[in-house]
Amino acid sequence: MKATTAVIWATIYLIGLYVIPNYSSSLILTGILYLSFPVIFISMIVIVLKDDSIKPKELNNEEWGYADKNKDELWVM
């Protein structure tokens, strides 16, 4: 799953988390939504962090960052 897909599903979940308890009297469904909240968002965070479909751009000499270097090229103390 791509990061954008995970974020879209998490957003739909948040909208449902707001709409269903306010417009429905189903306590079981509301409880399931609230109990599944940590699982949904931790999985979204893991998917976003592991997504490598977007390659980082090469930085210029005046810019600094870790994303454009291999771990072997980084200076280690």
Describe the overall structure.
By secondary structure, the chain is mainly alpha-helical. It has one domain. Helix content is 58%, strand content 0%. It is built from two helices and no strands. It starts with a helix and ends in a 27-residue tail after the last helix.
Proportion of beta-strand residues: under 5%
Mean pLDDT comes to 80
- Cα Rg: 19 Å
Give the termini distance in whole angstroms: 36 Å
Helical content, roughly?
55-70%
Unreliable runs, pLDDT <50, ≥5 residues? none
Number of domains: 1
* Biggest β-sheet strands, sense, barrel: none
> What order do the helices and strands follow?
HH
- Number of separate helices: 2
**Anisotropy-based shape:** elongated
Tally of strands: 0
Assign the structural class, choosing from mainly alpha, mainly beta, alpha/beta, alpha+beta, or little secondary structure: mainly alpha
What are the key terms here?
77 residues; mainly alpha; 2 helices; 58% helix; elongated
Helix and strand arrangement:
Layout (H helix, E strand, L loop, with lengths): L2 H21 L3 H24 L27
Could you give a short description of this structure?
With 77 residues, the protein is mainly alpha-helical.
